Automatic annotation (TrEMBL):
Gene3D superfamilies: Aldolase class I. Keywords: Lyase, Metal-binding. Pfam families: HMGL-like. GO terms for molecular function: lyase activity. The gene is hmgL. The keyword Transcription regulation does not apply. This is Hydroxymethylglutaryl-CoA lyase. The keyword Transport does not apply. Residues 7-273 form the Pyruvate carboxyltransferase domain. Belongs to the HMG-CoA lyase family.
Amino acid sequence: MPYPAHVKIVEVGARDGLQNESTVSSEDKIQLINALSVAGLKHIEAGAFVSPKWVPQMADSLDVINGVSVAPDVVLSALTPNLRGAQAALSANVKEFAIFTAASETFTQKNINCSIEQSIERFKDVVQLAQQHGIKVRGYVSCVLGCPYEGDIEPEAVLKVCKQLLALGCYEISLGDTVGVGTPNKVKSVISLLLQHIPIDKLAVHFHDTYGQALANIHSALELGIATIDSAVAGLGGCPYAQGASGNVATEDVIYLLQGLGIDPQIDLERLAKAGWAICDALNKSPVSKVSLALQAKCAS
């Protein structure tokens, strides 16, 4: 199968990235999201309406989303794990809700303190509210290529959860390699099975780079026709429930890969890198992205 002609990038740095970093100011988050919009990102995960007790980094999501100034065609999404969170997101005029579960029972219990079946049941009210207001719902499935507690995950377990989320009303399922243990062969095995039952335009990939395989895994997904990729500017993030898990694959690195394959994601790589440098300065850390570091060195020379 040829590579997709067009690839959608879902930028998750402002939520999935920052919620696993040290706390930064609301203004830093607003500037990041605005800069991502200027760079050409059209789908930006902007916050999470979750308990501030458990995720204090996202406590200001309402202020952040209300404070941004992005292009009219930019879709801002937010994590909405329950009805209360969905109602808060609705008040911020978020265009897309995101719900999450996992293909691993143990991970689901550790992450959201319930079984997979119970998590699906919890989401019904969220989806119903979204449908009443014409809001799309995106589903995340964690641990599709491996679990820190259960080890290998059978592709059939991934398929079962994906089917449940689609039946619930999700328009798209993001397949998460939460601990970054996947390899290209694992990616091909899981996605090949899913494509026997699920339309290709309903699947996305969300890979972490713990073992340095994220770009190789994305390339395998592209070869199978997957045309939506989640990534985080500067490679922000990690997973608090998976010791040693590094951040999401860096958006800069994904863009460079796509350009090298002749796919134009219509994102300004230099502006994107600068957005990453600014948020990394606020975090007092260096970008994880190899492409970002190379551009930074080039600008300094």
